[in-house]
Amino acid sequence: MTKVRRPLASKVVALQTTCDACGTIYAASQVKCPNCGEPHSAKVPMSLSGAREVTDLVELSRAYAGADLVCGSCGVRNHAGSTTCKQCGSPLDDAEQFHGGITDEPPTKPVHRSNQSRPSSTGEQIQPTFDIRSGASRSGGVSGGSSYQSPTRLPLPIQRYSAYGTSHISDTYIPWQAIGIVATFVLLMTFLLWPHQETVTVTGFTRERSVTVQAYQWVPEEDWEDNVPSGAITISSRRAQRSTEQVEVGQEWVDPPPINCKPAGEEINNLYNGFAKITPYEECDDPPGYYEPVYEDQPVYDTKVSYKIQKWVTVQRGTDRIEGKTSSWHSYGASGQKVDIGAIRYIVVLQMKEDASVRDKVVSEQDWNLFHENMTLVARMNRIGGMYSLTLVE
Ligand SMILES: [Zn+2]
Ligand SMILES: [Zn+2]
């Protein structure tokens, strides 16, 4: 498989440098030492080690503005685009571009230090004046020994006794409320469904049964040609879309993305103004491309037929109910029709002695035949109107 090397998102970093005169380490985008004022010398390389990533837009535009210009008179760097030296005022028309190099080594004090007795040489071990994480200046004090104070010790985490307490309680917690609700419900249902006896009088007899009448009729239907049943008479037919099918309409070049990517070094561009652009690279396997068929849904047409066919159709459905013990059933259907009759339900009409209300009760055929009008029976009832059984009075 072929390999491909490609760049990833680049970043801009602010380099550090060391003052040639007093040894102060400072951001190389500053054109002179913040401690002693010595112009930054191109002889001292700018250090990548410990360089800070630049995200501030103003600083980024400064980084991309171009190489600094070195004043031919005083040697101070001026930002790209400057026309006169801000240190000495000399014109910069013929000024050379700054060409300070970059090193991987951390910024170090130069071996020869021209002046150790400058008033603020406490900067000897001053750390860089920036720190992304704290955002605070760390210059001075850090290695000053006596003036350094360790940060206030944080209080210990508070012991969480409550967690233990809760689990202890839940071990022995009894849901009295839930038990109470269930017990009340059980008692109520027992009371409502507990049977008691009531006296009833038979006041009537009824029978009922379900009836379905079917007729053999011509019925209009519509279906695809191959589904039309035999015996059908075609009325009309038409073309219609029955389904869709996938049809290959061409091919498409597929270029799979690179795989198995591994870091493959980085490219460092010196921007010659105290900043550098770092572009990491990765190397990946580049799978070969291939053609893939492209499909499209296309309609499939067929013949749809309107026809008529003879079949059994339900023309009547209902309950036939007759009153009295001796009435005969109604008759149903005409000749050529099918009549389906369901099982007979035997019903007695009862009047409750207590409140004179009337109700139907389905009973067995045997009981229905046994009971007669004005007969007194004992009904086992519950308190929501249900009747469990009917028995003769002894
Ligand atoms: Zn200095
Ligand atoms: Zn100058």
TrEMBL record:
UniProt feature, compositional bias: Polar residues: 113-128
Residue spans crossing the bilayer: 173-194
Gene3D superfamilies, per database record: 4.10.1060.50
Keyword Zinc-finger: yes
Domain RanBP2-type per the UniProt entry, residue ranges: 15-39, 67-91
GO MF, any single term: zinc ion binding
Region (Disordered): 96-151
Low complexity composition-biased segments: 134-150
Keyword Nucleus: no
Annotated InterPro entries: Ribosomal_eL40_sf, Znf_RanBP2
Superkingdom assignment: Bacteria
Record keywords: Membrane, Metal-binding, Transmembrane, Transmembrane helix, Zinc, Zinc-finger
Protein's recorded name: RanBP2-type domain-containing protein
Biological source species: candidate division WWE3 bacterium CG_4_10_14_0_2_um_filter_41_14
